[in-house]
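Anyone able to model this chain together with zinc ion?
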Amino acid sequence: MPELPEVETVRRQLLPIVSDATITAVEVFHPKTVAYDTGIEDALVGATITTIDRIGKLLIVSFLNRADLFLLIHLKMTGQILCADQTQQISGGGHTLSETDVSDLPHKHTRVSFSLNTGVTVYFNDMRLFGYCKRATATETARIKATFGPEPHSLDFDPKAFAQKLRRRRTPVKAALLDQTLLAGLGNIYVDEVLFRVGVRPTRRADRLLAREALAIAEAAGEILEAAIQVGGTTFQHFTDTGGQAGNYTDYLKVFGQQGTQCPECGEIIKKIRVAGRGTHYCAQCQK
Ligand SMILES: [Zn+2]
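re: yes, here you go
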C-alpha cells in the first residue's frame, strides 16, 4: 500500500510532467474509479493543470481556468499513476510496480486515462478498485482538507500542541498515531518505525506517555517521513532504463516486517502483534 512518502514522491515527480498541460481527452475504463461521474470527461477536457497539492495521502489537482474544479486522486491499496510520453517512455509510482504494470498501457487494471496536449498520457491503474480519481468543488475540497490533522514534517507543525493532544487520547499510542485527524501522514509502517526510534511500545496508552516521549514522537515522525520521502524518489522511475523497482525506504526499516529477526539495536528478537487491527512490530527490550 502506498504510504505518504510514496504519494509525495508521485506528486513531486508528476508535477513537472503535467503542470501547464491541458487535458485533451479523458477515458474512463471503470466508472467506480470516477465515482460514477458521467460528466467528468466534459468537465476536465480543456482544463489546464496548474499544480498538484497533497494532504495526507490525497492528491489534489487544481486547474488554471476552472476555479471551482479540483481532481482528487487517492491511490488507496493498489493505485498507480503512470505517464507515457510520445516515445512510450514510461515513468510512474504508487503501489509496487512490476514489468506487467507498465507494458501495453492501457491494460486490464487501467481505470482512467488523461491525455494531455503535450503528448503525455497519464494512466491511473488500480487492481483492487479502492482508489479514485474524482472531481470536487472548491467547497468540497476545503471540507475534506479540514478533516486532516497537521503533517509532522510541514513547516507549520507545532510539536507541543500535537504532544498535548496525543496525551489526551485514551487509546494505544499506535491507534492514536494512525488517526489522520490527529496527525496526517503516518501509516502502519511509519508508526512502527517512529515508536521504535523513540523507545515507546505500541500498546502503551497515549494518555500515559510522558511529555518528553510525546514530543520525541512528534520529532521522530517528521524525521522519518522526510527521510522516506528523500529515498522515495526511486519508486518513480523510467522503466525503459531500469526495468523495475529498486531501493526505497524498505531498505531502512528497523522493525516493520522484521519479526523473527534480531533488533538492530540490542539483538532481541523483533515481535509482531496486532494493535488497532494492524500488524505491529516492536522490540520488547528497546521499547517500554
Ligand atoms: Zn531492541
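The domain at 159-282 is CATH 1.10.8.50 (Helicase, Ruva Protein; domain 3).
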